[in-house]
Design goal:
By secondary structure, the protein is α/β, with parallel strands linked by helices. It folds into 2 domains: 1-56; 57-240, pyruvate-formate lyase- activating enzyme (Alpha-Beta Horseshoe), CATH 3.80.30.30. The chain is built from 6 helices and 12 strands. A hairpin with a 4-residue loop joins strand 3 and strand 4 (34-42). The chain is globular and about 55 Å long. The termini are far apart. The structure holds zinc ion.
Length: 245
């Protein structure tokens, strides 16, 4: 099965490779926020041998809660990508997890919209693993048109299965971008899980998503803080200040 690995640096063509046929090497350099798998492939269009890279992002996750010691960073692995889709080559995900295990003192955040795939790698997570899912709202209908991932309520259901597995991890939910929701229903769905924290942030505002009112966000925050830690992202302020002007 082929999959997209990037654009040809020479002619810009989209490069699809078959995993078995690609030579790849792997770099993990935590000092430069670099985590990448580079494939050396022959471009189908310009015929040049080129390097195509997937997943080049390690972000530091802003996390000030007691589960992480002060002097430890939380590394958000593949923050701009999803390592756990049904289309992600499992060999690549395995390689990344094994690499993370080489620096077991770090805290690693792995986040997906397809949590059922977490189960696929049960024995491979580094010791300080945080597993997270993105859930924008409790309202499946709002998300249907904009995602190919499982819908929010299905994600929550699958995440619960992961929590009941043998995987030892911390668990978080990222409500980002925060969309319109029913705060009571949303909070009660989240309460059924055992969550170490919930991070919450807004969309850039440019994607015309159906956004909640400020009072709806405040209501949700009130309900959530009764049973979990909340990590607000900076951009949440845009939503909270919406009705002040
Ligand atoms: Zn090319």
């Amino acid at each position: 099965m082929g999959y997209y690995v990037g654009d040809c640096p020479n002619c810009g063509a989209r490069l699809i490779v078959e995993y078995e046929k690609a030579n790849n090497y792997f770099e993990l350099d935590l000092s430069s926020s670099h985590l990448e798998i580079t494939y050396i492939v022959k471009c189908w269009k310009c015929n040049k041998i080129v390097e195509a890279t997937i997943w080049a992002d390690i972000d530091e996750f802003p996390l000030k809660i007691n589960l992480v010691p002060e002097d430890k960073a939380v590394i958000f692995v593949c923050s701009g990508n999803d390592m756990f889709t049904n289309y992600t080559p499992t060999e690549a995900t395995k390689t990344i997890l094994l690499k993370c295990n080489e620096a077991p003192e770090n805290y690693y955040l792995f986040q997906t919209k397809n949590p059922i795939m977490f189960l696929q790698y049960e024995d491979l997570y580094p010791p300080n693993t945080i597993l997270g899912i993105t859930v924008e709202t409790d309202n499946d209908e709002l998300v249907k048109a904009i995602t190919k991932a499982p819908l929010p309520t299905e994600r929550l259901h699958d995440f619960e299965k992961v929590q009941h597995s043998n995987i030892k991890a911390y668990y978080m939910i990222s409500i980002e971008p925060k969309m319109k929701c029913n705060p009571e229903r949303f909070a009660s769905l989240l309460k059924q899980l055992d969550l170490d924290f919930v991070s919450i942030g807004a969309d850039s505002g440019k994607n015309r998503l159906s956004e909640p009112s400020a009072s709806e966000v405040y209501r949700l925050l009130d309900l959530l803080k009764q049973f979990t830690f909340i990590v607000p992202k900076k951009n949440l302020n845009r939503l909270l200040n919406k009705e002040k002007n």
